[in-house]
Every structure is written in structure tokens, then in C-alpha cells.
Amino acid sequence: TVEFHTDLLPQIFHHCEENLPVYARPLFLRFIKEMPLTTTHKQKKVQYVKEGFNPALISDPLFRVSAETKTYIPLTTENVSQFMAKSRL
């Protein structure tokens, strides 16, 4: 697993809010130690796409956007269904 300092999450939220249009802002953040590469230096993303944002499958730190608190908060198996019920993905 990756060690991550959550005090950076509000800064990441505000950076995205100031620099990205609404449709391009990430709803989920997943922090990994190192992105695996192919032999031609392309990112290996297939496994990450398959796992999606399911906290039951992912051991890396996983966060979801919180418009109420204007930051990213931990995504857990308990609050993922709450988030999905509210969101318009």
C-alpha cells in the first residue's frame, strides 16, 4: 500500500476546481506508488480500469469528491453506495 498525507486533499480539490472544467474534474482519486509501464514505456491501465473504484478490490488509498466539504474523503465500502445513490455518473 501507499502512504499518503491526507492534508494535500483539499489542495488537490481546489487546484482541480480552479483549473479544470466541471466535467473534467476527477470524482475519484487512487494513489499508487508507481505506475507500471510496458516495454515501450506506455502506462499499463487495463487492470486499474477493471478494478474501477471498488474499495473491496483495491488496497491503495482511494478517495471520492465531497462537494459539501470541498475536498476528497476516503472511499469505503460503506459510503460507496451512498455516493452512487447521490451521483449522476
From TrEMBL:
GO terms for cellular component: endoplasmic reticulum membrane; plasma membrane. Keywords: Ligase. One of its GO terms (biological process) is long-chain fatty acid import into cell. GO terms for molecular function: long-chain fatty acid transmembrane transporter activity; long-chain fatty acid-CoA ligase activity. Signal peptide: none annotated. PANTHER family: LONG-CHAIN FATTY ACID TRANSPORT PROTEIN, VERY LONG-CHAIN ACYL-COA SYNTHETASE. Belongs to the ATP-dependent AMP-binding enzyme family. This is Uncharacterized protein.
